[in-house]
C-alpha cells in the first residue's frame, strides 16, 4: 500500500483497476490535482491480479482496512475473470460497506456529442443492496431454480429519502418512481407505497409513478420529460445504462455509490481490455465520478472547476476516439492529451453548455429512518412446496387431501403460481414444482406446522421448502393463486 499524504488533505483510497483503468485513473488524478483537489491518496490493489492469486472476492483484507479507514473510494474499472467461482467485486463492495444509493447523472452534450436526445438531464437513483441482488438462489427440483427478490422497508425508506433529499439539494423539480407493482404487489408494492408515504413530506417536489415497462419506453423516447428517477435495484441497473447510452455514450457517465459511512465513486463502463495500454480511452466517466467524490468530501469548489473545464474541453471539440465526429470535433486526442486539454481549461466555463454550480451541495446527504412501528404478526397457514415428477394435478391433490390435520386444511395447489387443484384446466403447463396451500381458521403455532410437515413426509411426498402465510395487523400478506 503506497501513501502520498499531506497534512490537511482528505484521505481517499484509490484503485487503478485493470484494462484501461490505470490510464483513465492517472488522467483523472492529474486533472483533479491540477484543479486543487487536496487529497491524501492510499493505493490498493483490486481486480484481476487479486482474483487470479486465489482470492475469489478480488480484494485483499488490507484493502478493506484502507476503505474502512478513509471511507472514500475512487475506483477504476476492473476485469472480472471469466468462469465460475469469482464473485462480483462491485456487488460485494456495495453490500459489505452498505453503499445503498447508486447515483448516475445522465446528461447529453448536444451539439458537441452526437445524441438522438439533445435535451436530456436525468439523474437515475438506483437502490443498490436489495431486490434480486440479494444473491439468494437455489435449484429446488430437477426443473426449477429460484432467486429471492427481497425488498425491505428500511432499505426502501433509505433510498427513497435519499432520492428526495438529493432532488432538493441539487434543485431537481420532479421525482419519478418506476416499479412493477401491478404484478409484484408485495415487493414492488412496498417500494411504491413507501415512495408515496415519504413523498408527502416533500410538498415542494412534483412526484409521479410509472409502471417500469411504459416508464422505460418513455425514458428511451422522451428523456427530456424526466428529472430524477428512483428505482429498485434491477430496473435501476438496466435503465441507468440505457439512460447513459442515449446521452451519446456510456463512456461519459460517472457513478456514486453512497452509504451511511463509506462512499465509492467510479465510471459506469468496464475495463475495455481491448483498448488498454494504447492511450485511447476516454477518462470522462471516471472524471465525473471523481467530481461527485469532490462534492461528497466537501471540495465542491474544485468539483465545479473540474466539471466546467471538462465541459469547455468538449465544447472546444477536443475529443477521444469514442466521441470523435467529423465536422463537429476539432481534434482527436488520446487519454493523456485529453487530460492536458482539461487541465489547460481549469478556471474556464463553457460558452454554450450549461455551466455547473455545486454551491448548493452540502457535504453529504444524511438519511434518518422513521422509528419502526410495531405490527401484530400472526401465522395463519403455510405454503408447502413439493417436488413431484408425476404431472397429474388431480392425483397429487387427492394424495395431499388425504392428509388429515386438525388445524391446517388444503385450500389449493398451484404450479408456477397458477391454481391447478381443485378445478384446474388441462391446458395449464405443469413442472415438477408444486405449492400446496394449507390454511387455518385462526393463528397457528409453528409446532402445528411441523406436525403437518411430518404428516406430508409420512405420506411419501417430497417437501422442498415452506413459506409461512402471515397476517400483519389483520391484513393477509401473501399472494393469491392465479386463477384462484
Ligand atoms: P466495457 O464497458 O469495458 O467496454 C465495452 C466497450 O465500450 C469497449 O470495447 C470500448 O469500445 C468502449 N469503452 C468503454 N469504456 C470506454 C472508455 N472509457 N473510452 C473509450 N471507449 C470505451 O464492457 P465489457 O467489454 O463488457 O467488459 C470488459 C470488462 O469490464 C469485463 O471483465 C467486465 O466484467 C468488466 N466490467 C467492470 C465494471 C466495473 O469495474 N465497474 C463494469 C462493467 C464491466
What is the rounded distance between the termini? 61 Å
> What general outline do the C-alpha atoms trace?
elongated
Number of domains: 2
Our Rg estimate from Cα atoms comes to: 26 Å
**CATH level 4 superfamily of the largest domain:** Isopropylmalate Dehydrogenase
Largest beta sheet: what is the strand line-up? 1-3-2-4-13-12-5-6-11-9-10
Features:
11-stranded mixed beta sheet, binds nicotinamide-adenine-dinucleotide, elongated, 13 helices, 484 residues, Isopropylmalate Dehydrogenase, Alpha-Beta Plaits, disordered N terminus, single chain, 23% strand, 2 domains, alpha/beta, 6-stranded antiparallel beta sheet
How is the topology of this model organized?
Blueprint: E1 2-4, E2 10-15, H1 21-34, E3 39-44, H2 48-52, H3 61-70, E4 72-75, H4 89-96, E5 101-107, E6 121-127, E7 137-139, E8 145-147, H5 153-169, E9 174-179, H6 187-199, E10 206-211, H7 212-221, E11 228-231, H8 233-246, E12 254-258, E13 263-267, H9 284-296, H10 300-315, E14 318-319, E15 331-332, H11 335-344, E16 377-387, H12 393-401, E17 409-415, E18 418-421, E19 433-439, H13 446-458, E20 462-472, E21 475-476
Parallel strand pairs: 2-3, 2-4, 4-13, 6-11, 9-10, 9-11, 14-15
Antiparallel strand pairs: 1-3, 5-6, 5-12, 7-8, 12-13, 16-19, 16-20, 17-18, 17-19, 20-21
The structure holds nicotinamide-adenine-dinucleotide (NAD).
Amino acid at each position: 500500500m503506497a501513501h502520498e499524504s499531506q497534512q490537511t488533505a482528505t484521505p481517499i483510497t484509490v484503485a487503478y483497476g485493470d484494462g484501461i483503468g490505470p490510464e483513465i485513473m492517472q488522467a483523472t488524478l492529474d486533472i483533479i490535482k491540477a484543479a486543487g483537489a487536496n487529497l491524501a491518496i492510499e493505493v490498493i490493489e483490486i481486480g484481476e491480479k487479486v482474483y487470479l492469486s486465489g482470492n475469489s472476492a478480488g480484494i485483499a483484507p488490507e484493502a478493506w482496512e484502507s476503505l474502512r479507514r478513509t471511507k472514500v473510494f475512487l475506483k477504476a474499472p476492473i476485469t472480472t475473470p471469466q468462469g465460475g467461482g469469482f464473485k462480483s467485486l462491485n456487488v460485494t463492495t456495495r453490500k459489505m460497506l452498505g453503499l445503498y444509493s447508486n447515483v448516475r447523472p445522465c446528461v447529453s452534450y448536444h451539439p458537441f456529442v452526437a445524441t438522438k436526445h439533445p435535451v436530456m438531464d436525468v439523474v437515475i437513483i438506483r437502490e443498490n443492496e436489495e431486490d434480486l441482488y440479494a444473491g439468494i438462489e437455489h435449484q429446488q427440483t430437477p426443473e426449477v431454480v429460484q432467486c429471492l427478490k427481497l425488498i425491505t422497508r428500511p432499505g426502501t425508506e433509505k433510498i427513497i429519502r435519499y432520492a428526495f433529499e438529493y432532488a432538493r439539494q441539487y434543485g431537481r423539480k420532479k421525482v419519478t418512481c418506476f416499479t412493477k407493482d401491478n404484478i409484484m404487489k408485495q415487493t414492488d408494492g412496498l417500494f411504491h407505497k413507501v415512495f408515496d408515504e415519504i413523498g408527502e413530506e416533500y410538498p415542494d417536489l412534483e412526484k409521479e409513478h410509472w409502471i417500469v415497462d411504459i416508464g422505460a419506453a418513455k425514458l428511451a423516447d422522451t428523456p427530456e420529460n424526466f428529472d430524477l428517477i428512483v428505482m429498485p435495484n434491477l430496473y435501476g441497473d438496466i435503465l441507468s445504462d440505457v439512460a447513459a447510452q442515449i446521452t451519446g455514450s456510456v463512456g461519459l457517465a460517472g457513478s456514486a455509490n453512497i452509504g451511511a459511512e463509506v462512499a465509492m465513486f467510479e465510471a459506469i463502463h468496464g475495463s475495455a481490455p481491448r483498448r488498454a495500454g494504447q492511450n485511447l480511452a476516454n477518462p470522462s466517466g471516471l472524471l465525473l465520478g471523481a467530481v461527485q467524490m469532490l462534492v461528497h468530501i466537501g471540495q465542491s469548489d474544485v468539483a465545479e472547476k473540474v466539471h466546467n473545464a471538462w465541459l469547455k474541453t468538449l465544447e472546444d471539440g477536443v475529443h477521444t476516439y469514442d466521441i470523435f465526429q467529423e465536422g463537429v470535433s476539432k481534434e482527436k486526442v488520446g487519454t493523456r492529451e485529453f487530460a492536458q486539454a482539461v487541465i489547460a481549461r481549469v478556471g474556464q466555463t463553457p460558452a454554450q453548455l450549461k455551466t455547473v454550480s455545486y454551491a448548493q451541495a452540502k457535504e453529504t446527504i444524511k438519511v434518518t429512518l422513521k422509528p419502526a412501528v410495531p405490527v401484530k404478526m400472526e401465522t395463519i397457514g403455510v405454503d408447502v412446496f413439493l417436488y413431484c415428477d408425476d404431472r397429474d394435478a388431480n392425483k397429487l391433490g387427492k394424495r395431499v387431501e388425504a392428509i388429515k390435520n386438525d388445524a391446517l386444511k388444503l385450500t389449493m395447489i398451484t404450479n408456477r403460481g397458477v391454481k391447478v387443484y381443485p378445478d384446474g384446466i388441462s391446458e395449464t403447463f405443469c413442472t415438477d414444482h408444486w405449492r400446496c396451500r394449507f390454511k387455518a381458521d385462526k393463528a397457528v403455532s409453528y409446532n402445528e406446522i411441523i406436525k403437518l410437515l411430518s404428516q406430508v413426509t409420512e405420506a411419501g411426498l417430497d417437501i422442498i421448502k415452506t413459506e409461512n402465510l402471515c397476517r400483519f395487523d389483520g391484513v393477509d400478506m401473501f399472494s393469491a393463486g392465479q386463477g384462484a
